[in-house]
UniProtKB/TrEMBL annotation:
Keyword Signal set for record: yes
Coiled coil: none
Residues annotated as signal peptide: 1-22
Protein name, per record: Arylsulfatase A-like enzyme
A Gene Ontology molecular function term of the record: arylsulfatase activity
Similarity section: Belongs to the sulfatase family.
Sulfatase N-terminal domain span: 28-350
Top-rank taxon: Bacteria
Pfam families reported for this sequence: Lipase_GDSL_2, Sulfatase
Residues in SGNH hydrolase-type esterase domain copies: 461-660
């Protein structure tokens, strides 16, 4: 009996081991090569006749060449964000090379927006499923000390540029290996001795060698052939003296890229990995220069990088996977960078996370499906440099709007891939349908707000009489009444919509919030402060009270002020509505705890950290809003001033409502906190005068 059991156990273990081995070996290695600013027609397989790309042409012969694949955007950073997250530029975090807030770039101003901890990247998914993940080249989605660093976004190994503007040189003074700086002393002082692409190639080959016995994902966002147009040797173009220096360098850079791709493919062969590795090759956006009459890098397509026309968005795409992807074929099935995450997830056997905009196009890539289901898909782009541009494609039709105040253009790409014939006047129904789809595709972003031309940003204040006193007593003020001088008035309009006697509940239920919200647009700001009137009766008397806490609890009863049935929620529930509804329209919310009353306990100003101040902080934290602990900040000042002096100067008749002098203290505290947070797009507009008074 024991022998039989042992035999069964051994068989079970062998079966389990075989299953695990099959799961490991059936999953292909993935190499994703992303060129930088390579034009649609810069490869021989896509019609190039001047620049030679034999290795990439061989890749096309061994795989499938796609003619209608779209980059994530028309410039670098947002295109890469789309690639990593599977979300189009109406949803992804990084929607432009520069936004509102973020990291200070090389130009000295904020604007480098990193991926957030809440983002899920294709690298994270593959890493979690057992892939070794590596990236070599240009990242552009997170700087040091941000949540967007490669290691925080799913990469086991990284070598290259974090800052995309530093990647404009091929002779850098340093790059990064994971979180460590790697210096190139031979390039210091504008010397050009150490060409970075040589290091990128060496690192790529080493990664393949090191991980040949396990499934790996190798993302290679090389910087070639992005400007600066510089290379350590011009090769066969050294004697092309009738060309400009940039033309010679560009051609040599594309050929270097081709050479290095060939060496990488050879290394896969040498490690017996070619048949177990799917290789993707494409560009991050269209050609930076059309090079008309020399290379014609955009080919028959209109536009180039930074244009929403096909020349800015369409990219060459070659996919090779021997035995799985048809060799030597051309596919016109349209797909996009949004599809990379779901497609690679399917290849690796990973469940697709919620919130992606793409679809698994592996059946179309592998030739298993003719592509009919995806030809009617919708593709969407928005671009925020120099204004707000949009493009949307559904079926053969593509609509483009180059500014919010301009009309939509419409093209039939099936008949007119060069986008020469605008059909908008002839096809108004199609234009309206696509315009409605584009509007629905845009989700507001505080980093990339869409603002009306010439309009100042609004800072909307909602709260009670400690924000807007509203009485006839000229000695009394709420802090919102004296806040405007703390901002650059040429760029910011402070709107004090607070109302005396209101609680978080009554401000919401009386329709005051709906009225105030209607005046806000993307890029505006909201400051919320309630609590002073929330502790009263919930149904009796003035019926201003809310339930304590931050949860979903509710209570039904009859409102004494109206005689009607009413449902009352928690203080935190009402704050959450303000935060969520503001975010939904692209407004940045800032939750403030209530300013303290002039009440004292054991020689200190009474705090509400265990009640309203604490609940406000909880809501802000859980909802991802900014938080100012106005209760503690002001109370600390009150402690230093002393109770008697507060009555002499800061308060008049009661312990809640401040004099205008006292309101100045609170306003200055709000402004100082906003400057310290910082709030993207608002902090730089705060103006705090240096004064030598008690404030």
């Amino acid at each position: 009996m024991g022998i039989v059991l042992r035999h069964i156990t051994v068989l079970a273990c062998l079966a389990w081991a075989t299953t695990v081995l099959a799961q490991t070996t059936d999953r292909p290695n993935i190499v994703f090569i992303l060129a930088d600013d390579l034009g649609y027609a810069d490869l021989g397989s896509y019609g190039q006749t001047v620049i030679r790309t034999p290795n990439l042409d061989r890749l096309a012969e061994q795989g499938t060449r796609f003619t209608q694949v779209y980059a994530g955007s028309t410039v670098c950073a947002p295109s890469r964000s789309v690639l990593m997250t599977g979300q189009h530029t109406g949803h992804t975090t990084v929607r432009g090379n520069n936004g509102i807030g973020g990291v200070v770039g090389l130009g000295g101003a904020e604007g480098r927006i990193p991926l957030q901890a809440s983002d899920t990247t294709v690298a994270e998914l593959l890493q979690q499923s057992g892939y070794a993940t590596g990236m070599i080249g240009k990242w552009g989605l997170g700087e040091p000390a941000t949540e967007g660093l490669p290691a925080a976004q799913g990469f086991d190994y990284f070598f290259g540029f974090l800052n995309q503007r530093r990647a404009h040189t091929y002779f850098p003074e340093y790059v990064w290996r994971n979180n460590e700086r790697v210096d190139f002393p031979d390039n210091v002082g504008h010397r050009k001795q150490d060409y970075i692409q040589d290091h990128f190639l060496a690192e790529s080959l080493q990664f393949v060698d090191a991980h040949r016995k396990e499934p790996f994902f190798l993302y290679l966002p090389f910087t070639l052939p992005h400007d600066d147009y510089e290379i350590d040797t011009l090769g066969r173009f050294v004697d092309s003296l009738s060309w400009s220096p940039d033309e010679r360098a560009y051609a040599a850079m594309v050929e270097r890229l081709d050479r290095d791709v060939g060496l990488l493919l050879d290394r896969l062969e040498e490690n017996d990995l070619a048949d177990r590795t799917v290789v993707f090759f494409c560009s991050d956006n269209g050609a930076a220069q059309r090079w008309e009459g020399r290379f014609d890098s955009s080919g028959p397509l209109r536009g180039r990088k930074r244009d929403m026309y096909e020349g800015g968005l369409r990219t060459p795409m070659i996919v090779r996977y021997p035995g799985r992807v048809p060799a030597g074929t051309v596919s016109e099935v349209p797909w996009s960078f949004v599809d990379v995450l779901p497609t690679l997830s399917a290849l690796a056997g990973i469940n697709l996370p919620a919130g992606t905009d793409g679809t698994n196009v592996w059946p179309q890539i592998a030739g298993e499906d003719p592509g009919q289901p995806v030809t009617d898909r919708t593709f969407y782009w928005e671009f925020h440099e120099g204004g707000y541009q949009q493009a949307i494609r559904r079926g053969p039709y593509k609509a483009i709007r180059t500014a919010p105040d301009l009309d939509w253009e419409l093209y039939n790409l099936e008949d007119d891939p060069g986008e020469a014939n605008d059909l908008a006047v002839r096809e108004p129904t199609v234009v309206r349908e696509l315009a409605n789809l584009a509007e629905a595709a845009h989700r507001p972003s505080a980093f990339f707000p869409v603002r009306s031309k010439g309009r100042r940003s609004k800072v909307l204040l909602i709260g009670d009489s400690t924000v807007n006193n509203g009485s006839d007593d000229g000695d009394l003020c709420g802090w919102g009444e004296v806040l405007s001088p703390y901002f650059d008035s040429s760029a910011v309009e402070v709107v004090n919509a607070a109302r005396g006697g209101r609680s978080s509940k009554t401000y919401y239920k009386e329709g005051l919030w709906a009225e105030a919200l209607a005046g806000l647009e993307e890029g505006d700001f909201l400051l919320i402060q309630f609590g002073h009137n929330d502790g009263g009766p919930i149904f009796a008397g003035k019926a201003r009270g809310s339930l304590p806490g931050t949860g979903p609890e509710w209570q039904s009863g009859t409102d004494a002020t109206t005689g009607r049935p009413d449902t009352v929620r928690t203080y935190g529930w009402y704050l959450r509505q303000y935060v969520r509804q503001a975010k939904a329209v692209g407004v940045t919310p800032v939750v403030c705890s209530m300013v303290p009353r002039n009440r004292w306990e054991n020689g200190r100003t009474e705090r509400t950290a265990d009640s309203y101040a604490g609940w406000a902080k909880t809501v802000a934290t859980e909802e991802g809003a900014f938080f100012i602990d106005l209760n503690e900040r002001v109370a600390a000042v009150y402690d230093r001033v002393g109770e008697q002096e507060l009555w002499n100067t800061y308060f008049k008749d009661d312990h809640t409502h401040t004099t205008c002098y006292g309101a100045e203290l609170n306003a200055r505290t709000v402004a100082t906190a906003l400057a310290e947070l910082p709030v993207p797009g608002l902090t730089d507009l705060v103006r705090i005068p240096q004064v030598g008074d008690k404030r």
